[in-house]
Amino acid sequence: MITPDYSQLTPDCVLNALESIGLRCDGRLLALNSYENRVYQVGMDEGAPLVAKFYRPARWTDAAILEEHTFVRELVEREIPVVPASAINGSTLHHFDGFRFSVFAKHGGRAPELEDRNTLEWLGRFLGRIHAVGAIKEFQHRPTLNIDTFGIEARDYLLTNDFIPPDILEAWRTVSQQALDGVRHCFDRAGDVKRLRLHGDCHAGNVLWTDEGPHFVDFDDSRMGPAVQDLWMLLSGEREDRVRQMGDVLAGYEDFCEFDARELHLIEALRTLRLIHYSAWLARRWDDIAFKQAFPWFNTQIYWQNRILELREQIALMEEPPLWQN
Predict the structure, then answer these.
(1) What pLDDT, on the 0 to 100 scale, is given for residue 2?
(2) For a FRET experiment, which of 114, 258, 286, 301 has its CA 20 to 30 Å from that of 16?
């Protein structure tokens, strides 16, 4: 079977896919901000618009997508505010002309005010509830966030495919290896911490806030990993700011889920892995015209020079004491 690419996902294809599962569209189609997948707000003949998500071909297996849907449904059953894929004709995953897609109810909201201590504690409570469910069982078809999957594989891809400019290749090769050595040392200091099912990409853009509080969207990057992965991206500012912010998050989190303080050793290590993985993510998608349009600065000389400086900063940060020490 030939795997299609997004150039074949025309507006007619999107509308025909939805109508193939019995959804009567009114022709209105709005592309939403998404690069990994293609996501559209679609007007319906009757009722509110829906959101249709067309998964990037060949990224996940059907089993991995359905495993994510099952996890989110477990959260819904426990009244945790997340947005699940809708079951239509008995399934949450559908196929049309080689594409796989799911449909979601439209949910609005604004960005959370992460400077507010009550907001951070509120987010912590819901993340604690998510992790309490995530710890019940393991994913069988989705990967684990670790130095191999997010660091070594990403670095090898960039080196093997000649993305680094020749005149700074050795500098990037050296600093990226030093950074991964630092990551290993952080994981060694943390010890054998527990892995559980995570949101996986819990930055502010994936939290929508209403007067009733937060709800979490886009579990597409859900995977096994340490709990702190879903916490550290809520932190910002100077060290003293991040210490206070983490205290606020944990004040809510530990109402529902115990936090292993050893995981604080992993914050800068996880940030380092994310930085290397992000460069490789852009590189792996560079044949997609949408990426060239959205990230024109990628793969320029100045881009890689900045990444070298960034990794040097991370090497120093990974040598600092964890956040609970001042």
Answers:
(1) 62
(2) 286
For 166-202, how does the pLDDT look when each residue is reduced to its tens digit (9 = 90+)? 999 999 999 999 999 999 999 999 999 999 999 999 9
Given 5, 45, 192, 218, the catalytic residue? 218
Q: How far is CA 182 from CA 266, 317, 322, 325, in A?
A: 10, 9, 14, 19
| Residues near 72 by beta carbon (within 8 Å), at least 6 away in sequence | 82, 83, 84, 85, 219
What percent of the chain has pLDDT above 70? 99
Would you call 201 a catalytic residue per the annotation?
A: yes
pTM for this one? Answer: 0.94
- For residues 204 and 231, the answer to whether their CB atoms sit within 8 Å is no
Res. 326: pLDDT tops 60: no
218 catalytic per annotation: yes
| Domains of the chain (ranges, CATH numbers) | 6-105 (3.30.200.70), 117-318 (1.10.510.10)
